[in-house]
Please model this.
Amino acid sequence: MEVLPVNVYKDSLNPILDLLNETNIEYQMRDECSGIVMASSGVIDVLVNASIWVSLASVVISYIKAKNGREVIITTKDRQIIHAKGLDSKQLENLLQHAKNIVAIDTNKE
Model:
């Protein structure tokens, strides 16, 4: 099954997991080997299916709007890097269908 990796940084792990659970998006937590230096706090592999894009766009928008200092960066399969802030749901749906990787960052603590 195809997956879309979501790298989470700083305090973004729990908020992203909460939103994925609320929208019933299936995912797996990637096991990382201890002793390997990781730039991100973790990786969530979102299980991709034909009907996921509307829900995943909703997760991205909700995550960004919930708190200042949150950022979502999408890297497409053709290596374009796009900041999701300011995109509407339809734009995100189309973009996510071509995504290779998503990065979620929360730079501010509550």
Remarks:
- Residues 53-66 form the longest helix (14 residues).
- Strands lie at 3-10, 27-29, 42-47, 70-76, 81-83, 99-106.
- The radius of gyration is 13 Å.
